[in-house]
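During the first year of the project, the team set up a workflow for recording each protein of interest as an amino acid sequence followed immediately by a discrete structure-token representation. This format lets reviewers and collaborators read both layers of information side by side without switching files. As required by the reporting guidelines, we include two representative entries from the current panel. The first entry is reproduced here exactly as it appears in our internal archive.
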Amino acid sequence: MRGWSGATLRRGFVAKGHGGQKRAFKVKLVGEGVNDYSGPYREVFTDAMLEVTNIDPSGHSAIGVLEPTANNEAEVGDGRDLFMFAQHSESSSDERGVDTVSREEQEMLNIFSSLTHKNTEFSRELEEAIVFLGKLAGTACRHGIPVDLPLPLGIVWKCLSEESINSMDSLKEIDILAFRRLKEEDESTASSSVDAILSTQRRLLNSFAEGIGSALPVELLSLFTGEQLRDIMCGNPDIDVELLRRVVEYEGYNEEDEVISYFWQVLREMTTSERKLFLQFVWARNRLPLKENDFDAPFRILKDTKVSKSDVNDYPLPSASTCFFSLVLPEYPEKEMLKQKLLFAIENVTTMESDYVTNDVEVSEGWRGLT
């Protein structure tokens, strides 16, 4: 996908029976017997965002594209879940020292940091990776798939929408300890120090915007505020259970059934991370749209009719069809049993539903078998 043209990513095919999901390409998951009726397509973007925000045991970025902000690492201030573009060890040696140039010259160097920055092989690889991240985010947005991409409002979303920002407020959002330290300095020194800290982020934002521009007209982003742009691309970070309930349809059940009451109670009691796992389990994405009108299809809860009377002591796990945003729910007699089964399913089921039986030959051929 990295080498695909913008025209390829801007395509919006809608296949009959795919729930209205627009797609630029079709997905084949090697080793998983699933047809792409839009679930695997959404899974590509969801998994990509999970990978790019994955943290290794040492607390650092697993793949080095995004890294936790200082507030995220220290768990202080607001926005403790935020990530920013990865800094690299060579950045400090490339920045001009504030003592060797005037304040006006330093401001110009910060503004044109993309041009004055000394490129290395590492920095070029990082910029290419961030361009690709922008392509993914832009394509997902074009096709109505909110992505879990927790980037700072000030140095990313407001800048993309060409909204004026306050450098100190932007610093506070990502590093409140540095913000407090610089507040004690005189205004001119603090301003230069903040610009030096944020200049690398501004430079890498250009790469992110370049990637977004492959799929979206970036000239129109200024029509929105930073908050609006973030909400359009990322959706609601909190899984609103009541919003989900307003778009539900039942098949084999009705609203008054006891098991349905158990289900909604369990969903409300889940943590935010558990609700994200649930949404990925049933819809191959981990963020909801902002309002009812943005749903391409209703959330469907179907009764599992395969459970027989003899299975009362061995109820199966719930299953899902991510392509059609549906949950197949056995009629559990107790709330605790439903909770246990549902949590086990969303935390342990990593493959998608089986539309057909795969085989060892297909797995060994991998993606080459598609040609």
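The second entry, processed by the same pipeline in the following quarter, appears below.
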Amino acid sequence: MAHRLLRDPESDGWERSDFPILCESCLGPNPYVRMTKEEYGRECKICTRPFTIFRWRPGHDARYKKTEVCQTCSKMKNVCQVCLLDLQYGLPVQVRDQALGAENEDVPKSDVNREFYADQQDRLAKEGRDFQGSYGKITVKSDTIQKLQRTTPYYKRNRAHVCSFWVRGECTRGAECPYRHEMPDMGPLAEQNLKDRYYGVNDPVAAKSIMTLYIGGLDETVAEDDLKDTFYAYGEIASIRVIRDRQCAFITYATRSGAEKAAETLSNRLVVKGVRLKLMWGKPAAPKAVADAPSASAAPAAAMAPPVSVPVGMYPPQVQSQMQMRGMMPPPMNYFNLPPPGATGPPLYAQ
């Protein structure tokens, strides 16, 4: 390492920059955001080369964010340095590549080849030549990518982390706590791999993105079986929901590839029983509540129920007020072992 310190860091491929490459969602709504900058503060999580770290807070109620990959890796995939979503469409790499029909580049994954490949891309950029992965300049017109792209920033992604002390019932800061007081989501999105998201393989965000199709302009002559016969040829269907009063339907596929195949094949040419229907990408409908299952209003109350071992007085006043409004306050403790008023039973003391 001593011979590296004596040389020029830029000649070794270390990156130095003045401003990060970010999407609008990660930058935040504040136009006067303040950032801290540390040159060669950490190595890139993709190419393992040191680069300049930027850290900032996108909002007063948001968490601090920092750059995760270097600008060279960001330019090769045209993604944000923090969330690794596409800068132009706001979609995961896996969804963008399949929607545009772009072939996934064989980016080296070993340490030596990865560093050599990144150096080659830097040399091309200094010579005025474009990167080999010109995702930002693809001119292929795709109806799928235009319907899936995010046109407005999604600031909900910058929310603070969940307070681990509140989950255990030990947070005493109340409203002054900078973290969120809610139960964490332990679904597949909680286990994300940064490299898989960058290379566009096995991304849980992409698997959740597109699996539901919206069918509009339904007629009374079009039944649920007719829709199933039309869409079943492109993949396994998980559910079909028909809403007659709104003349629409939602078809959810079991796999994302089946939904993409149906959308590309039937776009602007969907006709069922002589009725021309409108096909768009839609959001999955919320599942109906079962009679035996707890209702949606009871779910937050069950999530906020305190552990038996934790006294209610240990909770912050704000949490106690919410528990009292929802009728979750337990009866007071009977420290004197006295029977409740009006109760009949054997005497407490022998005569």
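For the second entry, the following points were noted during internal review. Strands lie at 35-43, 50-56, 65-66, 212-216, 237-243, 248-253, 271-272, 275-276, 278-281. The two ends are 88 Å apart (CA to CA). Both points are flagged for discussion at the upcoming steering committee meeting.
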